Amino acid sequence: xxxxxxxxxxYSFNEHCMLATVFCELxxxxxxxxxxxxxxxxxxxxxxNQFKLKLEYINYMLYCMSKNCMVYPFxxxxxxxxxxxxxxxxxxxxxxxxxxxxxxxDTNRVSQTEPRTPDxxxxxxxxxxxxxxxxxxxxxxxxxxxxxxxE
Length: 151
Known about the structure:
Layout: H1 7-23, H2 29-44, H3 51-66, H4 86-89, H5 92-112, H6 128-133
């Protein structure tokens, strides 16, 4: 295996492929078929010489799925030729938007993992069972617990 490709990168690629496969269920039939074909193509590319490109493509696919907007090249059946760098394939303004969003995400991830200061209040986690028992139970009807998440 190439020195620049470590086990963590391979794990990340495989994890992103699985995540993209799950997200495919949220797409319409046409988009789902094309997305699954892209995932299969990326997984089938042998060797390590195009590994970074495969990772770049699957990351961009996940970005498109998260925005619920499958754009070129993922709105077309995968091409048979060798992968080109994503910045050569994707329109420039889309690529720049993706890179800016990726950098913001990295910045948010770093700021969320900063160590706590002594003045920072510690909020104990509330387990779902504690949340449910802390709320009133209706005399008639149904109590429903629902969890939601954003982007």
